[in-house]
Amino acid sequence: MFSQIVIGGFATGCIYAVVGLGFTLVYRTLRMVNFAQGQVFMAGAFLGLTIAQKLPMPTPLLLATVGASAFVLGLALERLIFRRLYHNHEVFIVGSIGLGIILTNSIRIMFPEPVPFPKVFGSEVIQIGSARIPETSVWIVICTVLLVVLLHALFTYTRTGRALRAVAADAETAGAVGVNVSRAIGLTFGLSCAVAAIAGVLIGPLYFVSFDMGDMVGLKAFAAAVFGGINSIPGTILGGVVIGVLENIAGGYISSAYKDLVAFVILLVTLVWRPSGLLGRETPVKV
Amino acid sequence: MKSKLSGFAIAATVLIGTAAAHAQDIKLGVIAGMSGPGTSYGIGIRQGAEMAVKEINAGGGVKGRKIALVVVDDASNPAQSVTAMQRLVSEKVDLIVGGWGSSQVLANMEVAERAGIPYVVVGATNPKITTDKNKWTFRVIPADSDQAEQIAEAAVKRLGMKRIAVVHDVNDYGVGNRDVFLASLKKLGLEPVTVVSYQSNDKDFTAQLSRVGSSNADGLAIFGTIPAAPAMMNQARDLGIKARFIGTGGLANENLMTLAPKASEGTVLTTLFHEDVDADAKAWSQRFVKEFSGAAQPARPILAAYEYRAIKTIAAPCLASAGTDRDKLRQCIGSFKGRMFGIPGEVSFSKTGQLQQQSVFVEVGNGAFQAFKGK
Amino acid sequence: MPILARAAVLPALLLLPMLLPQYVLHVLVFILIYTLPVIGLGFLTGFTGRVSLAQGALFGVGAYTTALLTTRLGWSPVAALLPAVLVTVAVAIAIGGAVVRLAGLYFVMATIGIQQIVGITLMNWIDLTAGPQGVRSIPPVALAGWELDSTRNFYFLALLFAVISYVLAKRIIASRLGLYLRALSDDQLAADAVAVKVTRAKVTALALSAAWAGAGGFLYAHYVRYVHPDMFGLEPSVLFLVMSMFGGYRSLEGMIFATAVLESATEYLRPFGEYRMIAYGVILLAGMMFFPKGILTLFERKARAPRKAVGAAEGVA
User: Fold this and answer.
1) How far does B227 lie from chain A, in Å, by closest CA?
2) Where does chain B have alpha helices with state H?
3) Among A215, B20, B194, C264, which lies 20 to 30 A Cα-Cα from C115?
4) Which chain C residues are Cβ-neighbours of B198 within 8 angstroms?
5) What is the value of pTM for the model shown?
């Protein structure tokens, strides 16, 4: 049972990690938390569902299509909406929550009940030791690794990527040396939406998709990002995986009732003991 | 998009229902989950109501008065259910036929009882709903005290199960069933090999199912509803659990086979309605499917049948004889005695407002509910 | 508001039950109930610059405390009021005490954690709270044999609580404590010169906000007569926060006004089913986009000293 629980937890942890990346990307650039992340994740799953049903295509293409659409959506949202919310943290948080509510309920009108997602990753059950793992879980881990590698390449080797990092590090200076800060911010939002949407497609086949699937995942991914370091990409990945595994272990051995508690207790403990997170950089946060 | 139209339809129904309702119209309240996890059931209830009311109004209404439907969505959530019921009370509905989910109904019936509105429950099976405390609430579907007992007997005597595991939702439906089922098993001389619980909104049942797997059960009783139950069935089969599934009314929904096409095969459960019971049931079922084929949402006959019968066979005649005087309505409903298609013999309400009847056994076969033959 | 107008408000409010239909009164009762947690939030946000998304959970703790005491132990509701308030304060300080020292955004994050932890506990500690079944048949408040069973009767109790809470809040704000709390948000560093007292003041603000939330929860439980964990999740927390923000952080009157407006809006949108929630989301979003400093800034010229963005009170880079 142990390996079953750990491997399963690893897969969900990857989902938290990827969605958490969205939080991290936006936070690094803007010092703001976008609470519509979870709902973008959910919307991505439904977009994937609709495309897979109406226009069957090879899975990598599906992922790319969903990612690209979400990217464009992120750009648009930043331009039209987020830009007007930068006044202060709570305005941004509440505004993004409002956006999340709009997304959730729009999907709810179209899909009021949970629906099954096509098995785009196959429906084999793989035997690893004594654990029986659905194929999808394996693919989740593989895709997460690929995603992280791609992002790393983007940030390290491309000009755009380096510009994004510059803006994240110090927007003023970056602007001073000619980086188009406003465009960089837009691109960052696009990226954060893209990764969340892709995560939605990744997890789709594991469980049914429903309009409220983004709520808890969004909050836990947020906890994961804070835990790992909300201004650190590797930290967020680590945070996600750790929370995924730990909550599964707690659910399996202690009580399935309190499984959800793990992520939030970790969140609180992190904020009290080391607010910058496991791998985050120290910034003065206590006054 | 098809489902979007139904959303418009619901909003429109409510708007038209309340705005266009003349002072003369009889207001019939319907409450159930039209979004969220219980949607599969709520749709059936709404379809049944629409069909019944359409036929009644087409025939001139009740003594010349039309029936206006006031439909409220409680999102299958007890907290919202109380608010939704309060809305029905403020709308001054004459009576309420509907209600799905034991936790929801146990909560919202208090509002109806306090307001003194006759409430005919069609979708909640917890025994606590009809006791000597309810004055205005009636129930037309078999309670868990009957269903869980009957499935326990069937499991042991007809299916020959010896090692039965129980998985149940921690809400009123799951807990109510568990208690009756375990008590029945005890009377039959059996203890369950393991009992585990889950929350309605859980998606991953690995922890619970691991324990079921290691208990080597030959039968797994699932006391839960859509979508948790089919998700659990899928995951159980993926984990290599071969036990046969059994359950009660919560599993009696057409969506079970849609969400767990392979895993649900062979499940035996007590259902609330099956068209093979008698010729009238079959005829109605065909009419119903025809009416709702091609509609935005698939036809869901099981709960629709109860809603339809409750309105047409019980409520409408009482509205005709007692008018909309709430107290007279209540007495008329309580003294109902007659035949309803799909249920053998004459039925009537007990002193606690429970319609007495036998539930029907079905087995999932070839993606549909088949009459249960014996093994 | 001129004195005469203020004096006329109270008698007018007392007359309303005779003039208004039951459904409108019902909405009014909720408005009155909600002013408590919203004003409570004001202590935290308006006066110390701490934004909390846990007020809904604390509201729930108050509601559950009285629900359990009255249904399980048979206490009379009147006797359960004080425990409801005290338990809420205790929970707030126990979990939140450690995080009051956090600045700005990190404090908000922590309150999200608190909200979730309390919510999950309410849902899963089934032996205590009956979890997803909720607590039913909560008795009505009975005063001298008179049961406040109907909307009309309960209205007066809610009004009483709302008035007391408003007057009390005004007193506190005008007092030395209030001055001190405001100083905290205006210029944290200067106030920080007396370091130890700063933390104590923040904890006090937290306690006050929890007390108000607990009292509001008590009222809620005895009006709706049913509690369930889903009633106290992130949604009411956001609602209360928005009500306190829309009113402009520092104006109690503004908060009350915003509460009335927002609650009425959400109630009257009910016939529209799912579209209602979309409309609500739009209101939230549009409100933040176009009125980040509160709707009342449109109306009130004589606002208090313009409040800078919360960022001024933080040390986050």
Assistant:
1) 7
2) 2-19, 39-58, 78-90, 102-115, 144-153, 172-187, 206-214, 228-238, 255-259, 279-292, 301-309, 316-322, 326-334
3) C264
4) none
5) 0.89
Instruction: For residue B141, give the nearest of B323, B293, B327, B358 by alpha carbon.
Output: B358
The answer for B330, left when phi > 0, alpha when psi is -120 to 50, beta otherwise, is: alpha
Instruction: State whether A114 and B35 contact (CB < 8 Å).
Output: no
Cross-chain residue pair B37–A210, CB shorter than 8 Å: yes
Amino acid (1-letter code) at residue C66: T
Task: Look up residue C244 and give its two tokens.
Answer: 């306190």
Q: Which two tokens stand for residue B13?
A: 């129904």
Question: Cβ of B40 and A113 within 8 Å?
Answer: yes
pLDDT value at B343 more than 80: yes
Lowest mean pLDDT across B55-59, C28-32, C142-146, C215-219: C142-146
Q: Any idea where the domains of chain A sit in the sequence? A: 2-273
User: What CATH number is given for B145-271+361-371 in this structure?
Assistant: 3.40.50.2300
The pLDDT, as a whole number, for residue A266 is: 96
Which helix (H) or strand (E) element contains residue C311? none
Neighbours of C94 (CB within 10 A): 9
A91 to C292: CB separation less than 8 angstroms, yes or no: yes
β-pair partners for B360: B271
B39 vs A113, A125, A256: nearest CB: A113
Contacts with A122 from chain B: Cβ below 8 Å: none
Mutate to test the interface with B, among A113, A212, A245 (most CBs of B within 10 A): A113
SS3 B200: coil
A2-273 has CATH 1.10.3470 classification: yes
Please state, in angstroms and rounded to a whole number, the distance separating the CA atoms of residues C262 and C256.
Answer: 10
Q: Which of B302, B338, B303, B343 is nearest to B318 (CA)?
A: B338
Query: A1 to chain B: which residues are within 8 Å by CB?
Result: 210, 214
Of A98, A265, A272, the CB nearest to C98: A272
Instruction: Give contacts of B210 with chain A, Cβ < 8 Å.
Output: 1, 4-5, 252
The larger pLDDT score, comparing residue B329 to residue C272, is at B329
User: What ipTM was reported for this prediction?
Assistant: 0.92
The listed range with the strongest mean pLDDT (B21-30, C10-19, C24-33) is C24-33
Yes or no: domain B2-141+278-343 corresponds to CATH 3.40.50.2300: yes
Compute the distance between CA of residue B349 and CA of residue B334 in angstroms, rounded to an integer.
6
Other C-beta atoms lying within 10 Å of the C-beta of residue B265: 17
- Chain C residues in contact with A275 (beta carbon < 8 A): 102, 106
Backbone angles phi, psi at B300, to 5 degrees: -125, 85
| Chains with ≥3 CB–CB distances under 8 Å to C | A, B
Q: Best of B39, B82, B168 to disrupt the C interface by mutation (most C CBs within 10 Å)?
A: B82
* CB contact set of C128 (below 8 Å; sequence gap of 6+): C68
The answer to whether the beta carbons of residues C230 and C131 sit under 8 Å apart is: no
Q: Is the pLDDT of residue B5 over 50?
A: no
Query: Which residue of chain B comes nearest to A217, CA vs CA?
Result: B203
Residues in chain B closer than 8 A to A246 (CB atoms): none
pLDDT per residue over A26-69, tens digit each? 998 888 999 999 999 999 999 999 999 999 999 999 999 999 99
CA-closest candidate to residue C252, choices C303, C214, C312: C303
- B266 versus A177: the higher-pLDDT residue is B266
Q: Which tens digits make up the pLDDT trace of B289-307?
A: 999 988 778 888 999 999 9
In DSSP notation, B9-68 reads HHHHHHHHHHHS--TTSEEEEEEE-SSSTTHHHHHHHHHHHHHHHHHHHHTT-BTTBPEE
Is residue B343 within 8 Å of residue B276, measured between CB atoms?
Answer: no
Percent of chain A's residues with pLDDT above 70: 98
- Is residue C163 a contact partner of residue C10, using CB atoms and an 8 Å limit? yes
CA distance B218 to chain A (A): 20
Cis ω before B227 (30° cut-off from 0): yes
